Every structure is written in structure tokens, then in C-alpha cells.
Amino acid sequence: MDAAVTQLARSGAIPFLCGSAAGCFALYSAKVAAAAGQWRAVSVKAATDMDSALCTSHSVALDQHAASCCALTVTSVASTAEAIVDYRNYRHCSQEKLATYFATRRPFFARRSVLGTAVVSLALSASLVGSFRLIAPQQPLLRHTLRSSHAGASPHWEKLWGQDGGLPKGSRFDVAGESLPLTAELKRRNHAPSDGMTALVPGCGRAYDALALARHGFDKVVAVDLSPAACEAAREEISGSSGSDCVQVRRGDFFALDPARDGTYDLIWDNTFLCALEPEVRERWAAQMKALLAPGGEIITCVFPIGEREGGPPFAMSVPLVRALLEPIGFEATLVQDQLPLEEQHRRPGDKLESVLTRGTALVTWRLKSQD
């Protein structure tokens, strides 16, 4: 044997390196297991079912990786034990005897005890977590934040809903009941002429309008809000009310709704939802509206507030602004009601009737041109 190899063997470096590897694997597997626990916690707080599933899937993959690293730890310990036995046997041998010793024995890492430990530990790991994974999983890309402060999913709204023990009815943006423009519209026209029709209300708040659509004849109305407090208030509001069995209140991000998973809708009612979004996500709003609309369906937009206004939310709206968002992607306005009577314009119960003169309301119905 080479003198350098002999010196290395006699120094005890091999058992030391094996033991160090076992320690590193143990530390790493503990960190991966902790990370898996953190992802499980994130999955509980996920804003949508899809994100929750992604987080859960990633935590499972991390558990599998941690278990596999534990198996490597145990295997490294077995290797260390064999290396220590060798070291005790050859540390005082001459160079010739040392060469003979290694020539007549398997390498310590390929012995039955080590290989058996590897097989048993990996099999046990796989049985506990479903599989083994030696390569660390890549972090999943969530489509919105949990991460969650893209301009269409601001925590601003949850703060408003949660302040002072909960947003009182009729305060701020809560109109304390079915919106006046929708009430008038549902009296004028039948928007649910056949059985099995569905509707979507993004940014539903207390779900007043979702309940109104259910009573109008929609068999399924999905009311979506990003705020957990808003969803809880909505469930309390509609509990026991006529039509509540047709309303599904979902906590989630409108932009994360997936037509393939969540379905499409015959009617989408935007009641001041667009004006609550930052301007940079308006084109995404339009594209998502198109994706979620069922063939032959219609979108009704409550365009509010119309007038001069700096900043937001709510941001100043106008019919031309909404046209510029929807017409380029194939929509046309089938009915524009920009001269609503004062009593039909959007307002809270305590607002004076004349207040709508400074922040007007329009109601516009949209359909895709190709589906007429």
C-alpha cells in the first residue's frame, strides 16, 4: 500500500469522516423535517384549496426526503461502526500486514451489516412516509401569496374586516344588504331562465348579493372573498336565510380560481370589485373574467365610483375604462345603463340620496361576441 494511504488509515481519519457524515445527515434530516412542519402550517393558512394542496404536497415530499436522510444517517452509523472495528484491528499493523488485511476483507461500506442496514432503513422510511426521496424537492411556485400581497390580493381588506372586533354593517364599503343596482336589475330582467344555472360573486363581503342571486333562481352561487373575516361574516349573514342552501362561501383569491377545477359560471356579478383592485391588475381581472365565464354567459359590472377621485381603493371608474379592458379580449356591451335613477345607484343606507351625484353608478352587461 502507498505510504500516504497507510498513514491515513492509521490516523483514524476514516472512522472520523464516517462519523462526521452520520452527524451531517442527522442534522440535515432534522432541518428538513422542521421545514416539512412549516409547510404543513402554511397549508392550513393557504388562501385557496389549490395552494393548500401544493403546500401539503410539498410537505409530504419533504417528509420523504427527511426520512430518506434518516436512513442515510443510520447507514452512515453502521459504516462508522465497521470502520472503527477495522481501525482497532489494523492501527498497529505493519504496512505489509495492513495491505493483506484490506486485501482479504470487503471495504467497510460494502459489508453485509452496512448494506443490510441501508435496505432495512430505506424500506422502513418508505413504509412510514409512502416513498423515499434522496433528492430534495424543489419549492412549489404558489400562484399568489401566502406570498400573498399581489395587487389583487391586498391584506388591506382583511385589516378592515378585522378591526375593532369586526366591520359593522353599513360602515365603510358594507351596504348592509343587497345592493340597490342589483335589486333593480333582478326586477327588470330574468337572469336565471333555466334550471342548473350558476353565478359567481367575487369580493362577496357579507354575501348579500350572492343570496339575492340564489333567491332569483340560480341553483348555485359561489361567493368568494380573500378575507377570512369576511367569509365568516358572510356565513353568519346567510345562515338560515331563504336560498342559503344554494350559496357556497369560499375563502380564496379570485385570480387563483381555476376553470378546470372550480368550473365556469353563467353569470358573474362584479359589484364594485374592480374598483377595489390596484390598476396594475385590471387586465388580469378581464382575462380571469373571460376564463371563468361559461359559454353563453354574461358579466354584469356595477361601475362605481364614477367621478373625479384621487387614488384608492376604491379607484375611480368609468364605462369607457371598463370597455377598454373587456372589448379588446372579445366582449361587447349588450346593455349599458349609465343613467340609473338616484334611488338605484350604489350607496350605503345612511348615505344621503344626493351623495350619488358626486360618485355615480353605471350598470353594464357584457357577453362574448363569438357566443351570441
Walkthrough of the structure:
It is rod-shaped, with a radius of gyration of 32 Å. Strands 3-2-1-4-5-7-6 form a seven-stranded mixed sheet, with helices on both faces. It starts with a helix and ends with a strand. About 45% of the residues lie in helices and about 15% in strands. It contains twelve helices and seven strands.
Instruction: Report how far the terminal alpha carbons are from each other.
Output: 87 Å
Q: What's the total helix number?
A: 12
**Residue share in β-strands:** 5-15%
Structural class: alpha/beta
Spatial strand order of the main sheet? 3-2-1-4-5-7-6
* Average pLDDT, all residues: 85
Order of helices and strands: HHHHHHHEHEHEHEHEHEE
Identify low-pLDDT runs: 143-149
Q: Helix fraction?
A: 40-55%
Question: How would you describe the oligomerization state of the chains in this entry?
Answer: single chain
Task: Tell the overall outline.
Answer: rod-shaped
Strand runs, count? 7
Main sheet: strands, sense, barrel: 7 strands, mixed
Provide the gyration radius in Å.
Answer: 32 Å
What is the strand and helix layout of this fold?
Layout: H1 3-10, H2 13-45, H3 49-90, H4 95-104, H5 112-129, H6 156-162, H7 180-188, E1 198-202, H8 208-216, E2 220-225, H9 228-238, E3 247-251, H10 259-262, E4 265-271, H11 282-292, E5 293-306, H12 319-326, E6 331-337, E7 360-368
Parallel strand pairs: 1-2, 1-4, 2-3, 4-5
Antiparallel strand pairs: 5-7, 6-7
